[in-house]
Each structure stands twice: as C-alpha cells, then as structure tokens.
Amino acid sequence: MIKAKRNTGLVFFPAYDWAISPTHPEREERLLYTQDQVMEEGLLDVDGIVEYKVRPASYEDIRRVHFCVPDEEAVTTQSHLIAAGGCLVAADAVLKGEVESAFALVRPPGHHAMRVVHGNRGFCNINIEAVMIEYLRERYGVNRVAVVDTDCHHGDGTQDIYWHDPETLFISIHQDGRTLYPGSGFPDESGGPNAQGATVNIPLPPRTGEEGFLFTLNELVMPLLERFKPDMVINSAGQDNHFNDPITNMNFSAGGYATLNAILKPDIAVLEGGYAVESALPYVNVGIIMAMAGIDTSNVKEPNYDMDYRPQPPDTTRYIEKLVKELQGLFLEDKLKRTAYRAGEIIERRRDIFYDTDMISERQHENIRICGECAGAFSIDSSSSRRRRIFAVHIPRKACSACSAVGRAWFDSAARSGSFDHLFLQDRSAGTYERI
Amino acid sequence: MILGLDVGGTQTDAVLLEGGKVVRTTKTPTGDDLLETLGTAIEKTLESVDPPAITRMSFSTTLATNAIVQDRLEDTGMIVTAGPGMRPEWWEVGPSYHVVRGCLDHQGFEALSLDRQAVSQAASSISGLGISTVGVVGKFSVRNPVHELQIAGMTKDRFSHIALGHRVSGLLNFPRRINTTYLNAALYRTHRGFVDALNQTLDAACLRAPRYLLKPDGGTIELNRSCDNPAHAAQSGPAASVIGALALEKCSGTTVILDVGGTTTDMAVVVEGMPFLETLGIRLGPYRTLIRSLLTHSVGIGGDSEVRHGQNGDLRIGPLRIGRPCAFGGPRPTPTDAMICLGLLNAGDKGLSFKAMESLGAPLGLGVKEVSGLVLEKMADMIALSAGAFIHELNSRPVYTIHEVLHRESIEPSSCVVIGGPALQVAPYLQKAFGIPCRVPAHFEAANAIGAAVARVTAEVTLQADTHRGTAIIPELGMEKKIDGRFNVESAVSMAMEALRSFACEGNGEESNEVSVSERHVFHMIRGYSRTGQNIRVKMCVTPGIIREWRRL
Ligand SMILES: [Zn+2]
Ligand SMILES: [Zn+2]
Questions:
Q1: Domains delineated in chain A
Q2: How many CB atoms lie within 10 A of CB A130?
Q3: Chain B residue closest to A45 (CA)?
C-alpha cells in the first residue's frame, strides 16, 4: 500500500459537458485522458490522497475580484463558476487542515482574466486563482500570498489583478512574449507604484528544457519566495510548456513538472492551460499529484520521451543564465529602479486591452492614489468596442481612511456625472460591493 | 419453488419460497466443511419436498472470503506489464511477481512492444517454483488486451490456469486489476472444486434447477460461470441482507436499510429500490479490488456489544463484543440484556440480565429500567449518527459534469427498514433517533436467505470505441471488434446491449427491460483543429434487483 508523505486534496472537475466551441482546444475531453491516467494509476486509492466534490462559486466570490461588464451573469457560465468553486473547495480543504496541500484540476482556466471583464480573453473569463486568493483572505484571514505561474503564457490577468497589491507576490515563468500570446510579461513589468517589485516576470526563450526551468526555479523563484515570506504559495499550474504541446515552443516534460512541484511545494496548485490533451496532460498531472503527495516520481515519463524530448540547446542555457542573473540583481539585490512618489499623489495609466476569444477591444484609464499606509485606492474608466463605458473603484483590503474617502468620492462624482453605463465600487476593506 | 441459502460465519439461513410466499425457513450451524453445511441445510429445508418442484437455487457462501481471510490462497505467479507512472513493483502480490517491459498508453496504443524474452524468463521462474496458476495483467489492458493475450499465448502450455486482467472489469485501476486478477487466479482451484462438488451434491439429490451464486453487488451469477471470476462471488453476505430487505418491503423514496446483528449493524442506502454501489469495488481482506459491490457501511454496535461506563460518566456501547449477553452467561452487560430487562425480549436468564443492568445503573444513580432504556436509546443514537456520516459521504461523492453539479439531488432518507435478530426490539428506538419511520418487515430474521433466493442475475459491460483506431472493445467479455467510420453512439449502445443480454439472460427473457445505461459519452478526437474520430464510451448494466417471480406477489 502506497502512502502519501503529504496529505493531498484533489478537486477534479473535467466539465465533460462544456466547450468554448466544438473544435476549440478548451473542449469537453481536455481532461478525459488525464482522468483515465489518474484512475488507472490508482492514485485515488493512495492513503492520504483525498478527492473532493466541487461546488459552484457565488457571484459574491467573484465580486471580490472582478468588475464584470455589464454583470457577472453576462460574462460567466456555470462552468466558470464551478471551476472557480473547485479552487474554493481546494482552499477549504487546506485551510481547515484536512490536507497539507491541494490541486484543483478544473477547467476552464483563468489566468488571462483581468480585473475588468468584458468577455473572454485567452480562453479565460474569471480569474479562478484570484477568486480563490480573495476568498482565502476573506474567510481565513490569509495575508501574504505568492502566486507562481508556470503556464507557458504570461499570466497577464493575474498580473493585472495584483499589480497594485504589495502583499501578493506574482511570479510568472513563461515563453518570451515576443514569441507567444499575449505578448507581455517582460522584466520591466514589475508592479504598480504602490507595489513595486511585487510582480516578477521571467520570460524564457523558446526551447527551454528541464534544466532551464529547474535552474530558474532554484536560482530565482525559490530565493524570491524565501525573501517574500508568503503565508501561502499558489501554483498556477499551466502545462503548455510541454514538448508535446501544440500551441507553444517549449521543451519541458512531465518529469520536470513533477520535480518543479516537489521543490516548490505549493499549498494549492490550480490547473491552467495545457492542450496536449493526450500526450502531455495525463503524465504531467499524474506527476504533479504524485509530487505534491511526496511520492517518488522517477517513473513518470511520457511514452514518447526517449524519442521526442529535445535537450536544451547550449545557447538557450547561456541566455537563461544571463537572464536569471539580471533578474537576481533586480529583485534579490535591490537593483530595481523604484520611482519615488509623493503620498496622496494620483498616478495615471492608460492602456488598450484586447480580448482575443471574443474580439473585444477595451480602453482603460486608471488612477491610483499613492499611499504609504495601504495599497492605495484606484479607479478604472473602461470603455469597450461593445460600446459600454464603465467606471470602477477599488478600495484595498487594508485601506487607510484617506484612500477609503478618496475612493468613495471618486465613485460619487462619477455617479453624478452621468457619463457611464455602469458604476462599480469594490470596497474590500468594508466588504461592500456596489453596482449601479 | 425457490431455494435460497446464506452461509454466515456462525449460522446458515435457508428459505423455501413459493409464489411470493415464504414456505419454510431453517437455521443450521455453519460447520468447518462448507459443503457439509450446505448439504445439511438443503436437506433440512427440503424435507418432504419433491425435488422437481424446485425451480431455482441460489447460494451465498463464504468460500472465497474464508480462503482470503485464512490465507488459504493457492500460490500464484504474476506477470505484469506497466509503462510510466506509479512503479509497478509497488503492487507486488503473491510469491512470484514479475514486471516485464511493454507499454500501452491510455488509448490502448502500443507505446513499447512486449519483451517476449522477459515473459519467457518470468514464466520459467514461476513454474520453477512449482506454481501452475498465473495472473497476467497489463496497464490499460481494458483499452487493448493485446499484451495480456500475447503473454497468455506464450505461456499457456506451462500453466494449468491463467487469469487475465482485462476480464475482471471494464474500470480503470491498474493496482486493483492486479489484485483482482491475482485473487481470481489464486481462488480458482478451490472454487472450481467447490462448484464441482456442489453440482454433484445437487445432482445426487435430483435437484436439477438452475443454480446461482450471489455476488457482493446483490446480483447472482450462474454457478458454473462463476468459475471465470471466482473472486466475484466473495463476501456476498451484506448484499444478501440488502436484497432481502428490498424483497420484503417496498422501498420507495430514499430508504436506509439497517441490518442489526450481534456485533455490528450494517447499513445500505436505497433510492427508489436501487441500492448504491461502491465506486470501484469491494475490499477483500487487504486487497482492494474491482469487484462490483453494494455500498454498505458497518458500525460496531449490535445486540451483543459490550456496554460500559465512559470516562465522563456516560455509557459506551461497542465496538467490542466481549462474549454472549449476561442472560446467556456472558461477562458484560449488552443491549440484549437491556431488552430482556425492559420485557422486550424473552430469552436467557432474566436474573442475570437484571443483575448486570443494576450494577451498570448504580454509579449513574439509575434503576434497571431507566438504564436499560438509556442503553437502547444510546445504541439507536450511535447507529443514527453513523448513518448520518455515511449519508454525508454519499453526498460528497465527486461529480464531473455541470449537469450533475447543478441537478443531482442530495440524499435524504425518508424511512428505514430494519432487519436482523433484534430488529423488532430496537426499531422503536431507531425511529426516535432517526426521526423517520422505521419499519420491520415480516420474515425480517430470514431476510438474508430470502435475498440470496430472489436476487436476479446481474452483469455489466463497458464498451469503448475509437473510430480513429477502428476498434470497439468490451474487455469484461473479451470482445474486440473492428469498426468503421460510421460507427456511432447508437451502434455502441446496441452492441453493448446485445453482449449484455447474451451474458446476463436467465433464459426466460427476464432481463430485457432491466438494462440501464450508466454512462454514455461521445468525445470528438481532434488533431490540430480538425476532427479525426470519435471516442465513444458506453457502460451498461443489469442492475441489482429481484426476480420477477417473487415480485408478482
Ligand atoms: Zn497557457
Ligand atoms: Zn491608503
């Protein structure tokens, strides 16, 4: 009888009755073969691996994170609510102490969903990790959280949501944005004015293999976590860095993912992308589950590994070593150039966001109040090509009285102006959420 | 007339049924020799019955269970192929376990061909130990049995019996497939011997009616056919009671069936007459298997459980049975003594029960009647609490589709059916503890034997078709067929239906309307952005239930 060294919860929700469209990669059988492999391995019989039943998340859970335009109902389906709810079940299992760690194997994914949601971006509508993190904070009083996003695509949604939060360290390891969707995630994207250095982007070159990922993990990610001292570590466990993945160009493997997890030891892992549904996902997921449970993963290997795995080329190794050294300098040796702002000052940011799946263009105008006492209130004036203009105010979790007052004043004056279709107030410190 | 027998640990119950009525019930002590016990019980039950009047005979035995528990399994070799994932050495079982190279992936494609030389070596080393029975198991062999068949073909001359993994179940679970195949192989000769001897005994008594064995899923299998998978007839006792309760009492809505025994109370949940099944299979001794089984839950409280004082001045009941009740000279007070003191039961030496209850009540400042009432209340409360946990577990079973998340209703029992020895005495207390009606059916004390008698033949088939690979396979029946691109889910359903009928038919058209499709999925297989084929999965079964002859009542 095999026994888990660490008790591990599994939340499995393959949504066998949901797809974005019939031939879209995010379709019914995405986790079918993963489930087959997990069942055949007998993982659920392992003493210490516990499977949990999903439940849907509520709109309230989503309102802690998102501004959904025009409302939650319009931009989510039951499948999104259940995927997010699956993460909440994983969170409950860990925080109630029933298991040491948990893995939410749910779909659809979420890490491209930003704070404002006009529709689907990169197969994502709702940021399921962020919904979970804010639930952890609300329900269990968790404070400092680190998210390590190991999906091949830059986790631009999670980055956006935590851009201004100094108590959430967001680390994304991904294929260089010059060669892959969404085209962002460069080292100079390092957090908003009140959270400088709390966002760390590690763009790896195409063909990065096992050694490159593990080198980056050991030399950069682990020391960053050591320094940040999070209460919890979340892994956005995308699996599209795999050498068999059809839509990316990386060379990672199931064994590599397993080792990564054994080192990272996330409290909660959440499945993100990964579309080699037959040739990678079954092995990667089995590897992750076994690694989380502390079971020997040396026999976890794709059947075509010996034939098709390409070791990392030497020039790629050199590139990665140089990149990691630079990032060590910036984030571990405090060489990051921090701009000094005056407390009370309002900093503006304007940007355009594209929703590839739903073909929506969004234009945002953001204002954030510089604050030394809290994460700072901010407002977003957002208009989409669907001709909707909204105004949204976020008051942070531990808002100071000045930021609360400023946020409320912004909301009131925007309401009086009459120039918006909808107004949103997300007051995390008071726990109130308004929508007009 | 129908003859039903349930061999229990200490006692063998038998019934004779006719036209929906119980004609006779008998009890025979279970001896060391199973066949002898059966012979005695049959003789006793059929006294002055004309043998040709018997139209069906069905048995629930402890043969396999005892062999496992008493470690009387035949030495059996195992030849296993695995591939990546959990290490196959972790599942080692039996005295000569060999892993040979060869790998099939989750869709049944051969990723690594079989190492024939290693198979020969394994076979030599097994037969070198004088072992003549082997189990052959491959990872994902239910998707494609090719390696198992190759190994069997290569080694059939060296062994007298070979059990194949893909024949045990259509479910995916490699370690359980290994265990189940091992048990099927290791039980084969004992089981075959028993079946042959039973056939002889019955023939000699001129009892020629169809013969069945009860399985833990609450269904029966034709006696001779049971030799294909001997482990599948193990531990059918709890199923006998559940099916018996279903036969005796109309279970509409959600019903908890409580079988109150001497040491334990066994429970099962039935929704609209359909009992819940284990997700994967029963556990036999240390072996987790793929043997389909009713989901039952056992709590260590029965009529003979020990009653003692807890640390906080409360009463504790069970989970131990120290001996017989005081009324029968036992050492410790039991719920049975409480029943005697309350005048609910007339048995044994009342004086002894009285004395035991008196000393139990004294430290609590309670009289005999009061403390006896308290014992039965406490017993019922504990059973209800345990049932609550069991039902909570049922409601926590994972689901994998949006439809199920949103529409699956949670289980809430609306009544209980109580069977077993002390059923009449404890039912009123259980009714109070559960807060729902608790009924005790007529013949409650013979429910197990009645269940064995009237359980219908059950079977399950799992069909997986892959139009890209061009194959449809039903592993349990060893069926593999070539299919073309026109094969669709309807073709799959009718193929599975036909296979199931030919297997599970009792020869009187019995099952035709009792087949249920438990899974029906079509997945489009896509390479890049275009469809290359369909992956069709159909699971169909004859669900546990009662033969029509009895229901006609
Ligand atoms: Zn991705
Ligand atoms: Zn502030």
A1: 3-331 (3.40.800.20), 346-435 (no CATH)
A2: 29
A3: B288
pLDDT of residue B529: 66
Dist CA B385 CA B27 (whole Å): 32
pLDDT in tens, A147-189: 999 999 999 999 999 999 999 999 999 999 999 999 999 999 9
d(CA B226, CA B220): 9
Q: Is the pTM of this model over 0.90?
A: yes
Quote the pLDDT of residue B72. 87
DSSP β-ladder status, A268-271 and A168-175: unpaired
Rounded distance between C-alpha atoms, residue B218 and residue B267, angstroms: 14
Residue A404 to chain B, least CA–CA distance (Å)? 39
Q: In this predicted structure, what is the pLDDT of residue A163?
A: 97
| Alpha carbons B383 and B317: distance in angstroms, whole number | 11
How is domain B77-186 classified at the architecture level of CATH? 3-Layer(aba) Sandwich (3.40)
| Cα A174 to middle of ligand 1, angstroms | 9
Average pLDDT over residues B365-383: 95
Residue type, A136: L
- Nearest Cβ partner for A51 among B105, B398, B401: B398
* Distance between CA atoms of residues A352 and B107, nearest Å: 44
CATH superfamily of B248-302+377-444: ATPase, nucleotide binding domain (3.30.420.40)
Q: Is A35 on the interface with B (CB under 8 A)?
A: yes
Put simply, whether A53 touches B (Cβ < 8 Å) is yes
Cβ within 8 Å, pair A29-B525: yes
Cα separation, B146 vs B133, in Å, equals: 20
Task: Answer whether B405 sits within 8 Å of A78, measured CB to CB.
Answer: yes
Over 60: is that where the pLDDT of B368 sits?
yes
For ligand 2, a single-atom ion, the residues with CB < 5 A are A 371, 373-374, 400, 403
Q: ipTM value of the model?
A: 0.92
Across the range B251-256, mean pLDDT stands at 91
Question: What pLDDT, on the 0 to 100 scale, is given for residue A124?
Answer: 81
- Distance CA(A175)–CA(A151), nearest Å, equals 9
Out of A23, A54, A299, whose CB is closest to B526?
Answer: A23
- Give residue B509's pLDDT: 47
CA of A322 from ligand 1 middle (Å) equals 25
**Amino acid (1-letter code) at residue B534:** Q
DSSP code of residue A209: B
Active-site annotation of A, residues: 112
